[in-house]
Write a structure and sequence with these properties.
The protein is an all-beta fold. The protein is built from one helix and twelve strands; from the N terminus they run E-E-E-E-E-H-E-E-E-E-E-E-E. A hairpin with a 4-residue loop joins strand 11 and strand 12. The protein is elongated and about 55 Å long. The C terminus is likely disordered.
């Protein structure tokens, strides 16, 4: 399961008045996305940028042709990425690109369908998979090895072991 274009970063907002932008990166190192010669926006428009530095986990950069704050504002929310073929090959079966998870089936340890991955988010404390439940409801699960013991890219599914957050029913209920 692969995508032809992989998002590596997104422009969050202008920085200053001379056309610089702040970029949220999904690469390690944080400015790693800028090293790709084939960097484009989601529509395929080539993007040439120069990293100026970092601030509070964001990359500060100039984009070729962007001269002022108004032009930089037009880039707000624009996704930056590369063709899948430009990515470094995965070294082990324990590694994967986040883009590989989109659309994957989620199954129980017994193999029963539970849903599919519709998004991946990170609000600072770690990755969360957004899973559309087979019933059509959306739920968020913390992405950890404890909850997701098997990610099988070749088979196109993730095995989810739900966290033990519900009582097992063996405890006696207190009545007041």
């Amino acid at each position: 399961m692969t995508n032809d274009w992989v998002e590596l970063a997104v422009v969050t907002q202008p920085h200053g008045v001379r056309g610089q932008v702040k970029i949220k990166s999904f690469t390690e190192p944080v400015d790693g996305f800028a090293a790709y010669a084939e960097l484009t926006d989601a529509s395929g428009l080539p993007v040439k940028l120069t990293v100026q530095g970092t601030a509070q986990g964001l990359v500060i950069a100039t984009i070729a042709g962007v001269q002022d704050r108004n032009a930089a504002e037009a880039w707000r929310g624009r996704k930056l990425g590369v063709p899948r073929a430009a990515l470094t090959p995965i070294a082990t079966d324990k590694q994967f690109y986040i883009a590989d998870l989109h659309g994957m089936a989620v199954i129980s340890p017994e193999g029963a369908p539970m849903g599919r991955v519709v998004g991946v988010a990170n609000f600072g404390a770690g990755d969360l998979l957004e899973i559309e439940h087979v019933s059509g409801e959306r739920e968020f699960y913390v992405f950890t090895d404890a909850n997701f013991p098997t990610i099988d890219i070749d088979a196109g599914h993730i095995t989810l072991t739900p966290p033990d957050i519900l009582p097992t029913g063996s405890e006696e209920e207190e009545t007041t």
